[in-house]
Design goal:
single chain; alpha+beta; Immunoglobulin-like; Four Helix Bundle (Hemerythrin (Met), subunit A); 7-stranded antiparallel sheet; about 35% helix; binds protoporphyrin IX containing FE
């Protein structure tokens, strides 16, 4: 129950918290491109702080000393950008002079491409070293945002411009050649000479919107082909476990203004990858057409020289992710759940042709248990309480009437299943989910109502007490609200990214289920009404009342039992269909 508590607290926090501004610890990646502190006032006009550098010209690989000084300030944020494109991405990387006063941040795709404060203590001088990258533009300008006090700050104070000497000699290493792919890839060799991961499993890389990854061994080299939707980037990663992070070895094809960049990175957590400054990839070529990014490259199967790259002749989980790229060239988090192979594979072993799953186990378990609870146990429990009191009124089970025992048991099962399965998405996300629209809010409400029900029932007044009517009413209305909300929650749950059941099959089947449930509910309701009418008619005719009543009742009971059995069978059929589909996602 403790983890349930965490879930509920997370719900409450999400309801009431608002994003807070200000970053005394200097972790300000959010403002990488704007460089504007989120302090709610506007930038001051005349800067008092200056940037100085010890050179006017630079070559790739040079260290340039950058100094920021001026009246005492609390925070700062320093970057280098192309002097011709001051709105563009940060360029090059920094090395710290004093790790206590300053820290390195990653903006865009380049590791350590910005420097910021570590605390709001007052300082008057900061040094850092800028390292010129291989692909630097001709002129580079330093920019700094300085925060004197919370509301007093200057944004993008321009610093000195430094430039590369006009290149005459070929001493500067050129970036590796990138050529165009002439043809789309071929899936015909998958499982024969190529190891393929495809999503969906019949993905033909000529077709839009499907994912294709192939490994083809050639002596000590591995030829890799990757193809996928061209909204921004596609990537695959090799991992020792089923979690993103822990140093996973990732390979990116990033579309960048009619160009494709290929990079390697390591995923150290569920956060922005650490891109490598050196590329372990060779023979890169790409194609950007028909709504697809296609890229291919080679790498050595054994790479000891490059830290963070895995050797390819071992067993790994393989991930496939795709997402958008922001204006400054930084990749965004995958929008849909990445694909993950169901077990580890050795891509240098025998060629296979495999698929994977786009839903994590914890989320699958969440959906499945919620279906069991809110499709089956709760509904049968309610029908038994509403229509079967008179049917089993004389038989006892463990000292209580049967209908009551069945009702209580099924409802406790519902609450238990809900509580367990409620915690799972929180465990998986490690917090509140931003991307599930109203589903989590409705879900929290259902959980709260489901917990209130047994509490109220435990403190119910005795049957003849006048307050019993109030309890009955509250018990009915809370339960009904919970069930209606639960159905809405399930409707919203079946199309979430983390467990996307096939469309539109899922909606139609849910509608089918609701129709089935309501239909049989109404049938029992009408039947109950007719039975009462019949009894009244009999009474009018003054026939021997007691006798006739029981025979009418007996018929009615058989009818009800038949309907209940039919209902349970249909209900379980729907449930099993959904569980099977969840297993297949
Ligand atoms: C900006 C880059 C990225 C960010 C911020 C990010 C963030 C996250 C987060 C927060 C999760 C946890 C589930 C969720 O809340 O959605 C996750 C899951 C996952 N990510 Fe990423 N991700 C990024 C890039 C990538 C890349 C490039 C790959 C692989 C090529 C990848 C593979 C995965 C996989 C397989 C999962 C599911 C397993 C798990 O939950 O750990 N991610 N990611
Ligand atoms: C009435 C039943 C249900 C309740 C009370 C419920 C409750 C919740 C709650 C509170 C969350 C939020 C967790 C978080 O923010 O980290 C959640 C997430 C989720 N639920 Fe449900 N749920 C129910 C049914 C379902 C069903 C039937 C499915 C799918 C078949 C489903 C799929 C999901 C998914 C995929 C997430 C993760 C969303 C995301 O973070 O991307 N849920 N649910
Ligand atoms: C500028 O500073 C860097 C780092 O200290 C140093 O490596 C470089 O030689 C200096 N350049 C000049 C021209 O002084
Ligand atoms: C790739 O092909 C496109 C046209 O499809 C062309 O515009 C571009 O210049 C080519 N790039 C290279 C590097 O060959
Ligand atoms: C591509 O696939 C076709 C069959 O669909 C096959 O005949 C052809 O040889 C393949 N081409 C390559 C380069 O593998
Ligand atoms: C992977 O396959 C290669 C080639 O068959 C083999 O040499 C290597 O030992 C395999 N690795 C594992 C971990 O099985």
């Amino acid at each position: 129950m403790e983890s349930c508590g965490i879930g509920l607290i997370a719900c409450l926090l999400a309801y009431f918290s608002s994003p807070s501004a200000g970053y005394p610890n200097g972790k300000v990646q959010e403002v990488c491109s704007s460089m504007v502190p989120l302090h709610g006032s506007s930038s001051q006009l005349f800067p008092k702080h200056i940037i100085e550098v010890n050179v006017t010209q630079f070559r790739s690989g040079d260290h340039v000393k950058v100094s920021l000084s001026g009246p005492a300030f609390e925070g700062f944020f320093l970057q280098a950008r192309s002097a011709n494109n001051l709105r563009g991405p940060a360029i090059g990387s920094f090395v710290l002079a004093d790790g206590r006063k300053s820290q390195l941040l990653t903006c865009g795709r380049v590791k350590n491409s910005a420097v910021s404060h570590t605390s709001k203590s007052k300082k008057t001088h900061i040094d850092a070293y800028w390292i010129a990258p291989r692909d630097a533009p001709e002129t580079v300008q330093f920019l700094v945002t300085v925060v004197e006090k919370f509301r007093i700050y200057w944004v993008k104070i321009p610093g000195p411009v430094i430039s590369q000497p006009k290149m005459t000699t070929k001493s500067i290493p050129t970036s590796p050649p990138i050529s165009n792919l002439t043809k789309p890839f071929n899936a015909s060799d998958c499982g024969n000479t190529k190891f393929c991961v495809r999503n969906p499993s019949d993905c033909d890389p000529k077709v839009k919107d499907c994912f294709f990854l192939a490994f083809k061994q050639d002596d000590s080299m591995m030829l890799v082909e990757m193809s996928g939707p061209a909204e921004g980037y596609i990537a695959f990663a090799l991992s020792h476990d089923q979690w993103m992070g822990g140093g996973d070895d990732a390979y990116f094809c990033i579309s960048d203004d009619h160009n494709v960049d290929m990079n390697t990175a390591s995923l150290s957590g569920r956060s922005y990858p650490a891109f490598d400054s050196q590329n372990a990839l060779e023979e890169m070529s790409w194609r950007l057409a028909d709504g697809l990014i296609q890229c291919s490259f080679q790498r050595k199967i054994h790479l000891s020289a490059f830290q963070g790259r895995f050797n390819l002749d071992a067993d790994y989980y393989i991930f496939l992710a795709d997402g958008e790229v922001s204006e400054d060239g930084a990749i965004r988090k995958h929008h849909r759940q990445p694909l993950m192979t169901n077990r580890k594979y050795n891509v240098t072993g025998s060629p296979e042709d495999i698929g994977g799953s786009r839903s994590p186990f914890l989320i699958k378990a969440h959906g499945a248990l919620m279906f069991v609870a809110w499709m089956t146990t709760v509904n049968i429990g309610v029908i038994v309480a509403r229509f079967f009191k008179p049917v089993w009124s004389h038989s006892l089970l463990f000292g209580e009437e049967i209908w009551f025992q069945v009702h209580r048991m099924l409802m406790m099962a519902t609450v238990l299943l809900t509580s367990v399965s409620f915690v799972l998405p929180f465990v998986y996300r490690g917090g509140w989910s931003q991307q599930a629209s109203f589903h989590p809010y409705l879900g929290c409400t259902v959980m709260a109502l489901a917990l209130i029900q047994p509490l109220m029932a435990a403190f119910r007044p005795p049957p003849q007490a006048p307050r019993r009517q109030i309890f009955n009413w509250l018990h009915w209305s809370t339960g009904t609200t919970a069930r209606i909300l639960a159905v809405v929650t399930m409707f919203m749950g079946i199309d979430l990214q983390a467990l996307n059941l096939p469309n539109p099959w899922d909606i139609y089947t849910m509608i089918g289920f609701v129709a089935w449930h309501v239909g049989l509910d109404v049938l029992l309701e009408i039947h109950g009404y007719c039975l009462i009418r019949k009894v009244e008619v009999l009474e009018d005719d003054r026939i021997q009342i007691l006798q006739s009543l029981t025979s009418a009742e007996a018929k009615g009971h058989t009818f009800k039992k038949t309907v209940l059995i039919i209902y349970i069978c249909g209900n379980i059929a729907f449930l099993v269909t959904f569980l099977v589909r969840i297993g297949q996602v």
